[in-house]
Amino acid sequence: MSQTIEVIGGVDTHTDVHQAAVIDTIGRHLATEAFPTTPAGYRDLLEWLQSHGRVLVVGMEGTGSFGAELGRHLRGNQIAVIEVDRPDRRARRAAGKSDPIDAYAAATAVLAGRATGTPKHRDGAVEAIRGLRVVRASAVKARTQTINQMKSLIITAPAEVREALRSLTTTELVRRLTASRPGTDLATPATAVRLALKRLARRYRHLSEEIADADADLRGLITHAAPGLLALTGVGPETAGQLLVTAGDNPNRLSSEASFAHLCAAAPVPASSGRTDRHRLNRGGDRQANRALHTIVLVRMRHDPRTRAYVARRTIEGLKTKDIFRCLKRFVAREVYHHLTSTISCTPGPSPTA
After folding, report:
1. Would you list the DSSP string of 232-301?
2. Which of 84-88, 164-168, 248-252 has the lowest mean pLDDT?
3. 0.85 exceeded by the pTM?
């Protein structure tokens, strides 16, 4: 294997096959080859890259999806990985579209300095949190669907069933239906509805237990990954988990708290024109992270005295509600970032008025 040549790799990732390419430090295309997405294929891909020279870095599309395991394999062998965005439409029209072309484009983007982002590491506690949150989210969605189905059935149920259930709270409704005895004559609509409601109530209870178990597991993982994060006002397992997933197992890849705010779409965007000097909300970035910040701000505006005082003061100064939200989201992003990048538990940060 030649060690006198320095090379840069590029990978176009897919479900079953990864297309790899290699170029030298002046951009010459050296070779391209496809490898299966198996442990043996990952080893062969790395050996193939190293057979062309000393690998400086590998640019890869899809580091968060199809290329996640390959990225772990490369990092485990001390190969730096750079995340590469898909080429824009103009570049695709000019160069064409194929797997080898995309693999070469990934390597060229790294060499040209167009791709510089460090991908998330997916080999720690945050990756475990991401997996559990997927299950929790689907359980929450299914539980919401279940209670909606129950209430819809009650609306159209025969009078003797509807009148006995329509005024009950969700908790009492589930408790009563779970303990009910519908009867055996399923040809009678009332009996069939009672049986359907009982089964939906049992499903609702099972999903609630599943969500509670996920919350308990997530709380322990979040406490391990970012001590002190759950101590922040308005931050719960759901919002903390989302912010951790957004930052990844290596939050230090974010150069500053401002970059984390941009990632969460909480950085102010200039919207000035003529005599108007203002900023607006950022509608880009990770929308789920922005949603988590929005939830935290809503909780603080209702229950946190310092936030309520800040809102009152800024309202008197003439700031609109959406602009107050923008300022508070930016502050929360700053506060959260310091907890994400610290391994030492600390108290909540300063007041927004500071």
Report:
1. STT--HHHHHHHHHHH-S-GGGS-SHHHHHHHTT-S-EE--BTTB--EE----S-HHHHHHHHHHHHHHH
2. 84-88
3. no
